[in-house]
């Protein structure tokens, strides 16, 4: 037995050992059916993501009163979670109405309790996201925003490593290089925004800073990957029910955070609706929609596609704003996006996929048997 | 008959048609023998190139008197060609002495005349190099040196296109992308040296400038590729004899250039030895050595390896000067060299090679026959 494979004693074919850890088995069973639809779905997800991310700076601009935010930024996180919970409930009600006779009822208490028990893992990403929301503010005390932006780019590599560990995804060398190129490409785009005198890594060398950087990069990456893991491992649960749990936990954790702030800073900070306008409500809805779209990425595509999608969205926003406001595109921007597009082609090119004869062999042999799930082969 | 292949009417195997243009046949015959030695040779070439390129800025610094060059830059080209001719003659004499009895004499008039006739093609790169030496000066009137440096990076793509057309080299998509990454990586390194306000392409938009750019990029690329073509197509001729012709033509063309200058500017500019010192002689010897090493690259390796080698040399010079003079490495430099190294790995990785079943098939079939040469398959 080698790499979880066993050899058939009759025909010497390779089989996946039944003891191989099989967390996303339901998802993998599903996968073999839908590969043809997957492309169309990916395109839809990316286009939707690009539109929402593109709206973001416009809404942020509109939310400012005299160039400042009048509302507490902590309240935005909580209200966003609440909006997502409401959306999940509405979608669940619609789904339940459309159910045919004989289907397992979506809204029965037994279904709900069982799903809640199965999806308890969603509390992990919800907690990590809540921690991340607080970290963002702390980080801005330690680093200037340009450095924070630069450091965020490291997330893509951390995500890939976590996908390899948690989801057992395999990447080819070309794909690892493509991810490094994505990181470099985004960084080149941001070079102009760094202060002139910034040295080699643009980092203050305080010892604590390194630890903060580690945490700042790892926590949101872990949140995304565990979210993908939790959503895919219970593939049969409706995504709206999964979202209800995820955002429910999220709302609870954020509410606890607000309570903590109230205890420390006094009851004034409890007024979470203070300073909001129509524009800020649109901003919250946009945030919520991005969050919901993310969960579709994590369940039906993956975290890496989400990363590429956000990058492409940023690039298109850059090009659109240059076209609308007559900015010239800097040479950094052109070099950076060239690297990003090459990276994207290399990552998704069939040439760079991990060759996996094992999987095909196993799939052909016993299609009715459960031996055949192998987690995360170079799939997108 | 398709792509120069014919089908055997008995066994239906594919054969290369004897009418297929077979310019580098001697080289290709040689190639099949030496693939094991090729790696060692490549390493030697790259290390030598790095040392010579690394010496260059030190010698340039030493050649300056009060921060200026006292000698005519045109004379450097001519003297470099003369130095290369002298080296070729010395090497030929050494080679002739070491010849065993029975070997075709290297220094007989008949050998020389026949080789001269066969290698007449070397006049083409020699002329192109001479034109390029004059263009360099003209370019500096139209563009600032930083822009010239940036434009020079485009050469690597032009060289690849020319290799495809002239040498029938085939590149995989990953290899094309690797070449684009090389271009981008070098450009990122140079970003800091561009003037602050430089817009999108950093180019003046005068109509003439585009034509000059085209010529400036194409002429030296054509020179390199035709040089490779000419040296490899007469693979059996001694490289020193080939160099003698190449640099002989080069010296003649440069001398004609000097004569032209004399006619236009008067006899003062004829004193080609004016203003030279020991340091400038070392500079000329270094230039000559780089030229000679290039011919080894072109004959025994290729133009692309030469490009990568020069880039690596520039990178090591940058790192060495940072280490010696205590400069901090800029973030541009770090991002740029990361892209260059990824590009290099991707270009030379066996994963990215063009799969070529045809060649193997043909080689196995008739090893004693001359059908088997196919030009420039994804070889490095």
TrEMBL record, chains A, B:
GO cellular component terms given for this protein: Golgi membrane
Location relative to the cell: Membrane
Transmembrane segments: 40-62, 74-94, 106-130, 150-166, 173-191, 203-223, 244-264, 279-301
UniProt-listed InterPro entries: EmrE-like, Nuc_sug_transpt
Keyword set, alphabetical order: Membrane, Transmembrane, Transmembrane helix
UniProt topology in membrane: Multi-pass membrane protein
Any GO molecular function: pyrimidine nucleotide-sugar transmembrane transporter activity
Homology family: Belongs to the nucleotide-sugar transporter family. CMP-Sialate:CMP antiporter (TC 2.A.7.12) subfamily.
Protein name: CMP-sialic acid transporter 3
